[in-house]
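just leaving the lab so this will be short. what follows is a protein written twice so to speak, once as letters and once as structure tokens for the fold. can you read through it and tell me how you think this chain folds. thanks a lot i owe you, the record is right below.

___
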Amino acid sequence: MATTNGTVENGQPDRKPPALPRPVRSLEVKFTKIFINNEWHESKSGKKFATYNPSTLEKICEVEEGDKPDVDKAVEAAQAAFQRGSPWRRLDALGRGRLLNQLADLVERDRTVLAVGFPPGVVNIVPGFGPTVGAAMSSHPQISKLAFTGSTEVGKLVKEAASRSNLKRVTLELGGKNPCIVCADADLDLAVECAHQGVFFNQGQCCTAASRVFVEEQVYAEFVRRSVEYAKKRPVGDPFDVRTEQGPQIDQKQFDKILDLIESGKKEGAKLECGGSAMEDRGLFIKPTVFSEVTDTMRIAKEEIFGPVQPILKFKNIEEVIKRANSLEYGLTAAVFTKNLDKALKLASALESGTVWINCYNAIYAQAPFGGFKMSGNGRELGEYALAEYTEVKTVTIKLDDKSP
């Protein structure tokens, strides 16, 4: 069961108690500075930015706002940490792995000390915004590898800046409009539950969200009926409450974008089955929303919503749904639900997606490479393919003297 800061991750169906202590409701944040060389620093500019609790819209704290000089300082520290003969360079892969696991454990537990034995300069944290910190990192001549997760539009800018500076390697994990295909012979109970969790997990704010559900016409009406039942029962509320399955959206901008797309679905002729609006008396909460009678030309079927909205489309046969599923510029993930393995493998081969799940959803493992086709990015995270993204291959050729022993 995934946990964050001691709470059950919103969207998980498992109702077990949290494995870690729940945080205080005051959302006290003790550390708001920039972390470089195992020390906390104020930003060079002296600027700060506010962060808000999306449940209540109350300000939580102000965080130091990094900029190019702060990135330069972090890069300088990292360069020193990775020099030949440094403690980090002398540490073998097993030792590095142990430290990385320790860091992950402490981040999950919201502990105060992030260094956990890392030599100074190995781990640096510079809070900031894309046009400043992001741009500085993308164009920095001393950064040799950059991993970016975000929108396709910004991903293009990152890669452009990287190519104009030092041709640094870039791994991009970008947008998705992921097809979830439910065949008439599928286990409908399983398909309904997986599609529901697939789109509503983390309030729909997930790059892998099942945001285009294609259902074969023979079972379409029943699938819609059961999906609506699931959505209506979904507990929405305090993200620190173990009973909650859906919390607030991340910020006002995303909240407004989701509501705009919901309105577009209504105007363009989709049938609103449930939800369709904000919660009346709360912060940035949106009711779990299900649309049926959705067509490929509607905005909710083409644009990444990144919110708790499930568009359900109808299809007649396999060849048709393959063509429609592949019709968009995205190709991050896809899912297929069927009891026919030959059909599943045919679809998996034909779908233009970096990951295809069969009779499951969001089954992501550290050993399995993850990344997208087309405008959903390039390169891979996780697995051996991800390790290759962070390494350079060197060829060394030695001519031996014939008299050498």
